[in-house]
Fold these 2 entries.
Entry 1:
Amino acid sequence: MATKSELTQQLGVVVGFDDPRADLEQYRTPPELAAHLVHTADLQDDIDGRLVLDLGCGTGMLALGSALRAPARVVGLDIDPGPLGLARENERRVASTAEVSWVRGDATQPSLNPQADTTVLMNPPFGAQDGNEHADRGFLESTSDLADVSYSIHNAGSSGFIESFAGEHGGELTHAFQAQFELPRAFDFHTTDTREIEVEVFRIEWN
Ligand SMILES: C[S@@+](CC[C@H](N)C(=O)[O-])C[C@H]1O[C@@H](n2cnc3c(N)ncnc32)[C@H](O)[C@@H]1O
């Protein structure tokens, strides 16, 4: 297995959104965080030989991180067709050998059939910007139907919500970690060149 820092380097070629949409919270998950999440999932045996779904795949960062390990198959799904083209280009850049499909669809109403041995990786919209707190709820609802294990990135302070959501949907929160990253200015309403985002990442087992 390649190291986490090797994976970070491999993901460094993943290009960000050309024309990001604020309403869809389009920003690239940083390679360091994506590599940390995928490496942790791989150490837990949650990638090897499994179907990996990246809900709200955007540039394809999380899908491609898992495609660089040994999944059975990877599917990236996004509601916006623009990033799916970019994700395809990024797939060529990382040159992974795993089978990867890019699907346009709504992650809150996915037209995917649940299959055994499915891992969801996702960095869903938080809804924090527009006051639509827990916009990630719909993504988690789909995940509880589709996956037997998931890794998801949420804004800081989500642990109470995640724990009770998991409990109410037959899930168990098994691991959590915090991370920070800087995002470059992308939208007109950003007042500084970079902004620091604090997030929490959760592993949930679904029954
Ligand atoms: C924070 S970005 C994800 C970033 C992605 N991990 C990456 O590194 O590029 C959130 C993504 O969710 C997508 N999205 C928002 N609402 C969605 C929905 N209802 N169904 C599917 N995708 C959605 C956005 O288009 C965006 O690409």
Note: The two ends are 29 Å apart (CA to CA).
Entry 2:
Amino acid sequence: MTVYKPNPQHNLLHYPIIGRLLRWRWGRLFFQSGLLLVAAVMLYDGFTGIQFAPENLSTVVTWVHYRGIIVFGFLLFGNIFCMGCPFTMPRTLARRLAIRGGRWPKILRNKWLAIGLLFTFFFLYEWLDLWASPLLTVWVIGGYFIASFVLEALFAESPFCKYVCPLGTFNFVSSTISPLQITVSEPDTCKTCVGKECINGRTSTPGQPVKQGDVLRLGDIQVLGCGTELFPPQIDSNLDCTLCLDCARACPHDNVALAWRNPLQEVTQGTWAQRWDLSLLVIIFAFTSLGNAFGMVPPVFQLESWLGIVLGVESEFGPLLIIFGVINFVLPVGFGLLTAWLSMTLSKHPEPLRQTLGRYAPAFAPLAFAIWLAHYGGFHFLSSALAIIPVTQNFIRDHGEVYRFLQDIGWGGLGDPDWTLGAVVPVNWLDPMEMGVIFIGLLASLYTVNERAKNGRAKRDKALAQLPWVILLLGLTFAAFWIFYLPMEMRGTAFMS
Ligand code: SF4
Ligand code: SF4
């Protein structure tokens, strides 16, 4: 199989209409404004509406639609949520307050904090039943706005997206199997480019790029450079790319391309830094896909009560922390290191442990993404997407001011909410679809293991060195099949069980 690299000839930014919209100076603001409006409605309903999750927009949109739409977005396009992320809207305002030269501390310039916060996010989601509480859901959304604003104001780069945000971490890893990637049309143009505006930003004065920490002046027409400090001529990965397209808007030579590629190109041939944090992040991402689904099936409740008896506690906190700590941290770190050690031992041309782990860790991305896709896209979204109709009707009825406004503009005939609306495909299709998606993910991961075996010092690691990785991937797949065959709790809606 030929693995196609991003081809700047197939540049989405040069497509009619969509290309112009994406490159438009206010393009990102346009997408962000749409999502900000949605967030504002969710906040409003979350704080003032009915505190019953299946009937509140904040919970239904967050836990059904947001999660479902982004996973389909990764499959068909790329990191669509970060592209229109409303949490970074205060970025420009925050940059006005930025202390010149303020840099994110060196000790935190890695993914360890992101791993910790990803773990914390999924633990809190389960422990506090975020999916069941409109109020807690909107506090999380509000907290996001505040945290992103504060970090953007204190530091001159975008540390929130790159090093902190759990949603961003999820999106970065998922987008490594997406079919679009930033690249440049003419690498030679970059070699002679003086301003490097794609990373430095562009001012209204030609040839005067924005420097890190520059404070914006009102009325000065500028385009920011890459907030996560990626340099387009050197990009060969979607990791850390928010798809904001600031680089494309800033480049004075129209040299940045958003090009189509084979979705497996990055994980099979990408040259990720062989760092412990990055490699373990991908493996943790895979195990967390199982941990998150396991939190919704009956055995977890039995395990919790057994642990509660053993520990002599009534609170859910301790047992849940142990369950999630083991599945989402101890197992991926333990199995990841053990498998890398076995692979290294079985290789005829062994590389050090860190390099062995770094070489094979990207192979977990396809299977992990497939499990998330089956879960969020298949189970939750396809089974419940139409619930948005009765929930919106209910929102309008519950908020007399909204109802009166719609009547004033001549849109008053709402009808009664039909609470049976939910699934967009026959419900009995869901299980086979989910299993099929996971199986395809497994095949893609096995293929990736084999491809990555060609990239190391050994030139070609023989099957024996690949075997431990194959066994671990098969184990994850069987665990996923087992979990997905069990009855799963609905989250955000109440129309199935
Ligand atoms: S992408 Fe554009 S701004 Fe960046 S180095 Fe190349 S030509 Fe210069
Ligand atoms: S490379 Fe940087 S500026 Fe360009 S789309 Fe990605 S995050 Fe945005």
Note: The mean pLDDT is 87.
